[in-house]
Design a protein that fits this description.
Largest sheet: 9 strands, mixed
Helix content: 25-40%
Strand order of the largest sheet: 2-1-11-10-12-13-14-15-16
Number of strands: 26
Distance between the termini: 70 Å
Radius of gyration: 23 Å
CATH architecture of the domain at 31-155: 3-Layer(aba) Sandwich
Structural class: alpha/beta
CATH topology of the domain at 31-155: Rossmann fold
Strand content: 25-35%
CATH class of the domain at 31-155: Alpha Beta
Shape: globular
């Protein structure tokens, strides 16, 4: 009996013909699956020549593109772990990340900040680029190192990714994601959305996070589809989606909102081949869901993911399955429960802390035993989200436990307040946060961004005012949930993956 080698992340990519795997619109370049396989084989040789070995930690700082993807896959296949970092970070931030993650080498695309940070952290650095379909590191491509299908280095338990949590409510923690976690999450995404070789996705999420890496890149490549890697510009999205025949894309709600605004500004509805769009990594307002589907004419499917689960945990199904607005769907490849403070499941329909366990869920936080003890037990991971499960398994999120607004003992979900304000025709974005209050402990504060037309009116007479928005909420929310303060801003601060930085709002408004 022949025992098959374990299937690692690279081995999920089985296609090797001339079908396009990666497409870059500007300047136009196409890497076929045959070319991708060859590039990976030669990249493995180059990494070996540089001394990259099993157990190493390699930082990646680069813009979205084939070089980042080929380097990521080749490094993971060597048994080393990749720490992809945001190329928009400044030198002090990047230096701190390199030190905290204890990387042994940095690959970058020539950015001055990466060069300076590597020097400051004392980390050896190499420049990488794609030339003639090959990954070149310090100007050199490698000789083929290993044929596709050979035993992967390190095995499925080897570390593949080191990522920091988003840190929206606390200091970021380091999440060690193993090959088996990534393989499981990739499969869950591909199965949930029935991805196939004729699918084409537009990559609009950054690849230094699991949303972009797993849902966009790996789920597509594992099913033989095509990943288009544009320099994301909302104004060009619908033209590029039509030109490249995109059949789906995945993004955070703020990106969907911007693309909807662009579509509504066109003289006619956008011409496209999309069969669905996916929303994840932040709550999808029901109003946005409805407006998007009305204007674009395709299902907008909400999913729920976290770094600690190598991305996807639940999703609403594609039609004809039942999509329930206001929920993040049902479990995909893992178990989901709502737990009380003693780690016991609460009955269906009651609120508890959302917990997950399964093959995509990591085992711990790296070098942080206190955080590990608080969040992991018997395979379960407590997400920090408050939610409730229906009798048939649909999950509704109430909010981050640390973000709930506590007004005299009444717990208020910021999502509920935001949903109401987004129903106002003048409001483009809204974010609720707690305002300290001597009498009630906390009150509801909200910052809003107005739509362009409303902003213009507000510059003169008859514009939308904070008082008007508070009155709008008074007709739609219980008295204790109504905002005590509304502030109109030109923009709401967000993290690099599009999440609202709610913990920063109070200080921003008080300045």
């Amino acid at each position: 009996m022949t025992v098959s080698p374990p299937v690692g992340l690279r081995q999920l990519i089985t296609r090797s013909d001339r079908h396009p795997a990666l497409v870059v619109p500007q300047p136009h370049a196409v890497l076929s699956y045959a070319g991708l396989q060859q590039a990976l084989e030669r990249a493995a040789g180059r990494l070996a020549a540089l001394g990259v070995r099993e157990g190493d930690r390699v930082g990646l700082v680069a813009a979205n593109g084939p070089a980042l993807i080929v380097a990521f896959l080749a490094i993971v296949d060597s048994g080393a772990a990749v720490a992809p970092l945001n190329p928009a970070l400044g030198v002090p931030e990047l230096t701190a990340e390199l030190a905290d993650l204890r990387v042994s080498r940095l690959f970058h695309d020539g950015a001055a900040t990466a060069i300076a940070a590597a020097a400051a952290a004392g980390v050896p650095a190499c420049v990488m680029s794609m030339q003639d379909g090959q990954l070149r590191v310090d100007g050199m491509a490698g000789d083929p190192r290993r044929a596709v299908g050979d035993q992967l280095a390190g095995g499925l338990d080897s570390l593949a990714l080191l990522l920091h949590t988003s840190g929206t409510t606390s200091k970021p923690k380091t999440v060690p994601i193993r090959q088996r976690n990534l393989v499981a999450s990739t499969g869950a995404v591909a199965r949930t959305y029935e991805l196939a070789g004729d699918d084409v996705t537009m990559c609009v999420m950054p690849l230094f996070h699991v949303h972009g890496l797993v849902a966009t890149v790996m789920a597509t490549l594992s099913t033989g589809g095509t990943v288009v890697l544009p320099r994301f510009r909302p104004s060009a999205f619908w033209d590029e989606a039509r030109r490249y025949g995109a059949t789906w894309y995945t993004a955070v709600p703020t990106i969907h909102a911007r693309l909807l605004t662009q579509a509504q500004a066109l003289p006619a509805p956008p011409d496209h081949r999309l069969r669905f769009a996916r929303s994840c990594s932040a709550p999808l307002p029901t109003v946005l869901w409805q407006r998007y589907e009305d204007a674009i004419g395709v299902p907008l499917v909400e999913a729920y993911g976290m770094t600690e689960a190598a991305h996807q945990m639940t999703s609403n199904p594609l039609p004809p399955g039942e999509r329930r607005p206001g929920t993040v769907g049902r479990a995909t490849g893992i178990e989901v429960a709502a737990l009380d403070d003693d780690w016991r499941p609460v009955p269906a329909g009651e609120e508890g802390e959302v917990a997950v366990r399964g093959p995509s869920v990591v085992d711990e936080y790296l070098d942080n035993p206190a955080a590990t003890q608080a969040s992991f037990r018997d395979g379960w991971f407590r997400t920090g989200d408050l939610g409730m499960l229906s009798a048939d398994g649909y999950l509704s999120l109430v909010g981050r436990l640390k973000e709930l607004i506590n007004r005299a003992g009444e717990k208020i979900s910021p999502y509920e307040v935001e949903d109401v304000l987004l129903g106002h025709p003048a409001v483009a974005e809204a974010a609720a946060y707690p305002v300290p209050d001597e009498r009630y402990g906390e009150q509801v504060g909200v910052v809003v961004v107005l739509r362009d037309a409303a902003r213009s009116r507000s510059a003169g007479e008859g514009g939308t005012t904070p008082g008007e928005l508070i009155a709008y909420c008074a007709d739609r929310l219980a008295a204790f949930k109504r905002p005590a303060r509304v502030t109109i801003l030109p923009e709401i601060p967000k993290g690099p993956t599009g999440k609202i930085q709610r913990r920063n709002l109070a200080g921003l408004v008080d300045e």
